[in-house]
Amino acid sequence: MGPARMAFSPPCLTLRGAASAASNRLSWLCGGARRTSTTTPRRPPPPTGVRGLRGAVAAGAVDMRWVKDNINTVKANVAARAVAVDVDAAVSLYDAYLALVTATDDARRQRNLVASRMKTEAAKMTPDVRAEVIAQGKALKASVTSLEGRLAHAESAFVAEAAKLPNRTHPDVPLGGEEAATTLRTVGAPRDFAADGMAPRSHVDIGADLDLFDFEAAARVAGNKFYYLKNAGALLELALINWSMAFVASRGFTPMTAPDLAREDVVAGCGFAPRGEASQVYRLEESDLCLVGTAEIPLGGMYAGQVLTPKQLPMRLAAFSHCFRREVGAAGTATRGLYRVHQFSKVELFVIARPEDSEAVHKELLGLEEEMFTALGLCYRVLDMPSGDLGNPAYRKFDIEAWMPGRGIGGGWGEISSASNCTDFQARRLGIRYREDTSDDEAATGSREGSVSGKGATRYAHTLNATACAVPRMIVTILENNVQADGSVTVPHVLRPFMGGLDVIRLR
Q1: CA 364, 403, 215 angle in degrees (round to 5)?
Q2: What is the C-alpha to C-alpha distance for residues 133 and 139, in angstroms, rounded to an integer?
Q3: Catalytic residue (one of 244, 418, 447, 451)
């Protein structure tokens, strides 16, 4: 058996359950939590539903009642975020789906009544009546089969369109494309290379002179936009990872490592489902696994379908992982070298919080990022990103860009991190909820059962994510800002203990 091959998969969607169970999920479609008997608690359905159906998002992931009641607001939000989705079509498909749910349930009920009549009255029936009831039962059975097929198709069509709907947008988010981003503050000032008697240099040239990486060998092995880190370059990556993990762990984050692959439904539940030729996601052929573009995906999937308690929130996680991105359409001198690559290492922060706490947590994440970049001695600016640059999951996003002297002609700003509040967008798709009245014992066991009557209603949690350290871009920033006239590079003070005390990188 040969190794799995990497291939791009077109957009596809998974339904939460079989069409025959659709009527049992109407409370999810309306945005409510499912209720089950207190005597026979059941686990909530997994985000994927029927295994084997390709795709992403469950029918209950979008609160369609809210969409219908606020359709003009939704349309304005879609326009502001420049998302390609037909809101009217999504609502129409939703209505058609609900109509088929009702028709299918009615047909099943009639079929069951006929079957029950045959069980209890068959012995008393005349041959003609018996034949008539049998024929009626066969007709109803065929009708149910036909309706279930139509229902499955209607659900798939509805979900495919509804899944394109973006999150709502924070009222303070600037409207427009990337150029409309608001600069909240700039910390530090670009280095004056002329005062140091030298010109700025690109990290590509600095690294080549110091033998820190090899792009040519990586291209022969894996293709363009891959790289080998060597010598102090490899040590610098490890130092950045270890320092970042130690730093965030000291601030209450649980340090973790995470899988580099995740199922398609988990990827999509986080808002990263493959979308046409512009997709950034690699998928393993003959598998439902994808290479993750960020540890946010496996961290979110870790709590899919779980019901948490307030004592567990906010849940602060920090994970190291490798990240894989197709980087479709990325080209140009500003993206050469390590700036935009297909594989890189990253430390990601992920928080699950109560809705009323998520805005404060968002600011906390941004403050933590700024502390880290200040400790590294970077010149950076904080941007409040506009509606057209948010991506579907984000309610609000802050980007941090560092000054990179070798970027483009004359230097430029380059993104090194982002911090996003996704509110309940991911939690709805992944089924991450919390219940106010859950006992400590249930919290200790990580209850995965659905909302249970008598124990308090469940609410969808909010999820947030932030970049603690995207290694290649941090290396770019450090090399280009810390290069000296003799070609050596000064190591930031906070990283030296993690590099065996090395304070200057010189050619070996």
Answers
A1: 105
A2: 10
A3: 418
pLDDT tens figures, 283-305:
888 888 999 999 999 999 999 99
CA atoms of 311 and 306, how far apart (whole Å): 14
Instruction: Give the model confidence (pLDDT) of 337-357 as tens digits.
Output: 999 999 999 999 999 999 999
* Tokens linked to 183: 């600069």
In three-state form (DSSP H/G/I as H, E/B as E, the rest C), the secondary structure along 307-367 is EECHHHCCEEEEEEEEEECCCCCCCCHHHCCCCCCCEEEEEEEEEEECHHHHHHHHHHHHH
State CA 279 to chain mean position distance: 14
SS3 499: helix
Of the candidates 340, 429, 433, 435, the residue annotated as catalytic is 340
Q: Which of 244, 451, 473, 480 is catalytic?
A: 473
| 401 counts as catalytic | no
Q: Are 452 and 35 in contact (CB under 8 A)?
A: yes
CA distance 22 to 59: 9
Q: Report which residue type is found at 243.
A: W
Full DSSP string of 153-198: HHHHHHHHHHTTPPPP--TTSPPSSGGG-EEEEEES----TGGGTS
- Tell me if the pTM is above 0.85: no
